[in-house]
Design brief:
The complex is a heterodimer of chains A (358) and B (924).
Chain A (H helix, E strand, L loop, with lengths): L9 E8 L3 E7 L5 E7 L5 E9 L2 E10 L3 E5 L10 E5 L3 E6 L2 E10 L5 E7 L10 E6 L4 E4 L9 E4 L9 E7 L8 E6 L3 E6 L4 E7 L4 E6 L8 E6 L3 E11 L3 E8 L5 E7 L2 E9 L3 E8 L5 E3 L5 E3 L3 E9 L5 E6 L6 E6 L3 E7 L6
Antiparallel strand pairs in A: 1-30, 2-3, 3-4, 4-5, 6-7, 7-8, 8-9, 10-11, 11-12, 12-13, 14-15, 15-16, 16-17, 18-19, 19-20, 20-21, 22-23, 23-24, 24-27, 25-26, 28-29, 29-30
Chain B lengths: L2 H12 L14 H6 L3 H13 L6 H14 L20 H31 L15 E4 L21 H5 L2 H10 L9 E3 L17 H20 L3 H14 L3 H13 L3 H14 L4 H9 L1 H16 L1 H6 L4 E3 L3 H4 L6 H6 L10 H19 L4 H5 L4 H5 L1 H6 L7 E3 L3 H6 L4 H15 L1 H4 L5 H4 L10 H15 L3 H18 L4 H18 L2 H14 L4 H13 L3 H14 L4 H18 L30 H34 L2 H14 L4 H13 L3 H14 L4 H13 L3 H14 L4 H20 L12 H8 L8 H14 L3 H15 L2 H9 L6 H5 L5 H18 L1 H11 L5 H7 L2 H16 L7 H11 L1
Helix pairs in contact in B: 3-4, 8-9, 8-10, 9-10, 10-11, 11-12, 11-17, 17-25, 22-25, 25-26, 26-27, 27-28, 27-29, 28-29, 29-30, 30-31, 32-33, 33-34, 34-35, 34-36, 35-36, 36-37, 37-38, 41-42, 42-44, 44-45, 44-47, 47-48
The chains are: A mainly beta (358), B mainly alpha (924).
Amino acid sequence: MSSPLSKPQIIAHIQKSLNYTVFDSKWIPCSAKFVCLGNFARGTGVMQIYEVQHGEAQLVKEVEKPKPIKCGTFGATSLQQRHIATGDFDGNLNIWNLEMPEVPVYTVKAHKEIVNSIDGVGGLGIGDGAPEIVTGSRDGTVKVWDPRQKDSPVANMEPMEGETKRDCWTVAFGHAFNDQDRCVCAGYDNGDIKLFDLRNMSLRWETNIKNGVCCVEFDRKDINMNKLVATSLEGKFHVFDMRTQHLTKGFASVSEKAHKSTIWQVRHLPQNRDIFMTAGGAGNLHLWKYEYPAQRSKKDSDGVDVGVAGSVNLLQNVTLSTQPIASLDWSPDKQGLCVCSGFDQSVRVLIVTKLNVA
Amino acid sequence: MSADAFFSLQNQSTTADYSGKVPVEHLDYDYIKKCKDVKYLEKILKVLRSGDEGIYPHLIKFCESHLETLDPRSRALRKDNPVATAASLSKDEWSQIFDGLKMWQEETKKTETSLKQQSMFDDPVKENMPPIRGSNCSVPVSQTSVPKEKRNSSKHTLPRDYREWDKFDVEKECERIDRNVVENDPPVIINTGHPKIKTKVDASLLTQQEKLLLANREKDKGNEAFRANDYEEAVAYYSRSLSIIPTVAAYNNRAQAEIKLKQWHSAMTDCQRVLKLEPGNMKGDYFLNSNKELKQLLSETEKKMMECHPEKQRKGKKILIQEIEEKDDHSNNETKAEQTACPVEPSQPVGGEESSAAPAERGDMGNAQKKPHGRGDGGPHSEFNNSHHGHWKSKGGSSDKYKVTQESKEKVTNGTSKRGSTASVQADQSGSGKGTSVGGNAGETVNLDAPCGALPPPLARLKNEGNLLFKNGQFADALEKYSQAIQGCTDSGIDSPEDLCILYSNRAACYLKDGNSQDCIQDCTKALELQPFSLKPLLRRAMAYESLERYRKAYVDYKTVLQIDISVQAAHDSVNRITRVLIEQDGTEWRKKLPDIPMVPLSAQQHRREQPPSAEVLQARAEKAARDAERKAEVRFASLKQEGNDFVKKGQYQDALGKYTECLKLKPEECPIYTNRALCYLKVERFTEAKQDCDAALKLEPTNKKAFYRRALANKGLKDYLACSSDLQEVLQLDPNVQEAEKELEEVTVLLRQSLVNANAPPAKPRKTVPITEVEGDEETTAVPNSDSSGRGEDVSINLQPAGAYEFGQALNAARCSGNMTACAELLASTKPEMLPQLLGTQLDGHNISVIMQALDSHLLEKDPNLVYQHLNHLHTADRFSVVLMLLDKDERRHMTQLFEHLSAVESMEFTKNDVQNLANKYI
């Protein structure tokens, strides 16, 4: 790390100003195109497809939708179809064929309020098992959907009668390494992180990180759960080692205070699960690497295995803008290519170099 | 520094007080310099940065740099950086990134269109998709505020007191069983990655594109698991990747993971597969080599196994020689069969091919089973294997080549199993087709069974079926197949003694198994008539003789076997045994009663064609002596090498040097020794010698990564950074994954820049600078050797090249003046390409270049295009090259373009068209 040459560099390749507020941006798998989802000032939703060409992002398609679109995912679609699933301000879950985005191929009123977060698994060859979409909403529920089943979710995680409903800010799939096992992790505004086991249909683990959980992500969805990163409102993030679960101590974790503001997003590099990028409220990006400890578990005083957390290493940090970076997505196909969008109404394509060295 | 400050420093180093304000006197160079407390320093830095005590930019910087030396990862050092843009990179770097991106865009476009096309025809609904989850299950989100009783379905949450956990234990236990986690302690769940990862992926419904992507993804997951030291999981993921599409990289990586897991056998088979898929593959070679010591270990255990072997022999048990040859040449498409442990379907239409592969593989696995850990990887075998499980297990005690068969009778009765019947049906079919297609080529089966290349497909099929049956222990059936094959051979009049010999030899093995020694001897003799000095028929005949108690003949055959291959341990043992028996029988004069032992010609090992020259005893003995000497040298060489390696491991490089030098006296053509010695030279900082060794190694093996890398280090030691960086680039070209090389390259690039700066050359800066330097900047890594380094280069060259720059220049001038291109070409041919720039020195001018170009074009290109490429590759690094290039006149330019046109038309292993194109860009 001594020589500056060996450090990964974050290069701003393309910057495109938009005439709407962009909430999410996602690469279309197996292409040099990405989708931007957002909200026109007039209160309607918008979905735009851009293609990276000759160092520019060229608009390929634009569709306006009645409701602002908050989030989207390709996680549950096949490579051949590449349908995007989106959640909007009205609580609808829609699946669109990007070739014909006028009419959704699947639609359901998923939640009573805004869908804050969406994630998919079982598609794109990521994870065995059924294609499923999970949505988390302000109404406090987390629901799992199968695109083959109309109208009703296949799993519903909601607070009991009389409990206070917390705003669910983020959801993520994980642990989908065979047909049966699958977990959903959800983060709430009060700092709760809950891990639902979809195989046993039970709550497997929960913890509280004291501050609103802005984003959770497993390092890989389709392996036996290995690591979970959760970012929080006040600029801290926690990395949990998910391999060893102690009955009382739960999972070992390491936390790092990086940004001086909210960490809006965390995304793991698709080509290396130990490298991840966090996007902060002050318009900055931090690139991290998780270093495993020599032994990932040890015996505690009772002779019970306890996980040992590793350490995180800052590889690079840059400031892109003064406004928060709200979304970030690595290209699944080209290592180091990523797209991010911020509240400064612009979308950027970044190139991160020397990720192999790190 | 005041005494007061000093006192507080001492004080603070033991009990640092962070709570208070930092005293002003601590904001001082001396204090900061002496302070070793990172936290306190961070605090000082904070105060300094805040500007409360005034702004001292230099002190801040000083404090930062001091903090960095103490704790490079300190958070206080993190600074907000502006995002880099294309302009902040050097032009080269950026263009590289941009080109990569462009290429990727084009590629993805292609993939995308092909995906779209496929999706138009394919039905996207997959039948094998898992069913929809049980409808609308509701999972309660229990929260901390909820009373505890309600939390039954939830397992647990973090902060709880211990009493509460007592009642959860039972439930916990059940859940643990659900999850099949092998555990000894109840209250913990460990997610070790491997137990339930399926090692096979059903990719049958996917398109090629998807398969490729998926295979890559699985491989990446394997890589990640490997990095996390989770090797078993890594192996599982590599296996998954391989089950989708077998790739060299995945095999290589799996081999590496298996080496880490000490599964030597599977690692070795994987390496072999790599080499089969891609013969020149370095990694495979490397792993295989690193496996060699393990092989030794293995052969030792095998030997131990053999010790109990003679015992059984005396009890009248028969020895079986298993087919060695068939085992070696099974094709690589059975990989799935082994790794994924999927049963081979008995009703497969290509039964002969697929199924023969699986048992062959099992032969390998049988090998592994002898090791205690080998078993695990084998997994459940095909159904077939299961029916003979006892049989295979019984072989556990002996080596894989020589197996004691106690149950041969049983196995013959097993011949009526399902597999046997299907196989024979196929045999019948192919038998009926025999008449029509006799004499056709054997293209279909060549890949399956190389030695039967000259056999027509039906016969080859027969033979393969025979082999299969044999391996399954159905010797009577195998016998029939072989007999049919032999009959077919003689009927159709195929003149292929090799194949016929193998057939006879195989049939002999069947006879031997059945205890029919007489027929076995007959077949062996026939086989030997066809192919004298074939190892296997000889060995079989010897065994058959022995079992008939015709010890003298057996002795002679064993002796002959040993002449062909001294390493056949069974023959050694038998010879010893028979000697004792014969001494008992005939007394001390037993040798006189022996028939003549035929002398095996030296060439027998390769060809085995010549007749036994029993008369030429003397000559043969001489040859034998020579061979013994050779073998001894071999042994000595190996031991010397080993000793050398040991010394290296211990760090005694001087001693190692001696050993390696002796090694090279014995065998001057061994590339690894050169590279090893180069390493030693590097360690003792004798860079010139190291460089020479690397040169020698590269002469023997022009693509040796290690040699390039070590030469780079040597060059670095010699401060010839230019050569160093070009060597490193070579390494990275050969294998872009060598991280040391990358790091080294970066270092050297920096050093190179510094040296250029020192030599008052214009500093090579990225694009921001004046346009004139830009040209130089482009070449920073490849060209512009400064006078300093070239001067040093000459010192070295005097050792290497007695001709020297002056003489070279003279010769070149003479050739040019006389227009004698041949002389010039000879001169160039005798010059090492890497020396060319130094020899040219400062004498490079347009005429010289033109002459060199013409000579290369007209004379050398035909003979040795690689040399031409090398010359060109080095010529542009010469002094003043870029200047001279600008001054070239039309004619000279024309020569140059011609040369590159011709060069790009040449096909070569050493360079690709792209290389030539890149090179041409530097010239034209």
